[in-house]
Amino acid sequence: MTLYYTHTPRIRLQLCKPVTWPPLIFGVIAGVCASGNFDWSTASSEEYAKLFLCVLLSGPVLVGYTQTLNDWYDKDLDAINEPYRPIPSGRITEEEVWQQIYVLGGAGLTMALILDVWQGHWPPTVFAVAVVGVFMAYIYSAPPLKLKQNWITGCYALGSSYIALPWLAGQCTFGQATPEIIVLTLWYSVAAVGIAIVNDFKSVEGDKKLGLSSAPVVFGVDTAKYMAPIIKDSVQLTIVGYLLYIGETNYALGLLALLLPQVYFAKTLFIEDPIKNDVKYQGSSLPFFSIGTIVAASAIGNNPLH
User: Fold this and answer.
1) Which residues cross the membrane (predicted)?
2) Which of 85, 106, 195, 237 has its CA at a distance of 20 to 30 angstroms from the CA of residue 187?
3) For residue 173, is it within any domain?
């Protein structure tokens, strides 16, 4: 059943798509674990306050900014695929949409700067990550670049925003992002390309009409339905190999165990009927994927050489 709100605060919340916040929260927690500088049992209330602020900025605030911006530039597509959405249905004005975009974007950058000042950072690394996130969100949705028009650039931009950026925000809050960690998170983000491809199945017809080169349009539904889980799961296998390489065998086995149900759900749900089961597949497999990022990050935080 579609929720059809008419009260403005609820409409604003609907634009922020709270259902998309949890992966970013997991990403922040992963970064905190990878820093190796946060003890969950002995951390002070001040440290937990910093963690909460980082979660708030990465999840509700900057994801809300991203989703609102994306909905504005997707209003023509949504008019075809999801005409009940707040913008194409006319339940919120253009001025109100841009107010929300500016407030959330500005709040996110401000919160990032507060974290840097609070931690005594120079250069302000959390702020730098937030700036990259705000910029990526804009070029993902808005012309002339509009990265989402092409499945490769669009899916990777989305993937890095959901894995690399929140991870780096969490790690920079309590530690530092080394070149190794930056490369690792950018590679891990390739797994989210598969997740982004799954999201494109709900808008195949609209993408075709508007000339968007999503993976299901470019390769066809029957090919893209295999691409999505193969990309996601094969990248996770390389992370298992990396954890074995740095000597974190138990964490590697834990990540491998979390991969198995993802493969099972891909076979029984998504590959069987990607159009019908895309949401069910995401809901079933993504928790295991997100927990897997925390397992991998914990291995790094636990390793004395990383």
Assistant:
1) 20-38, 50-68, 121-139, 151-169, 181-198, 251-271, 283-301
2) 106
3) yes
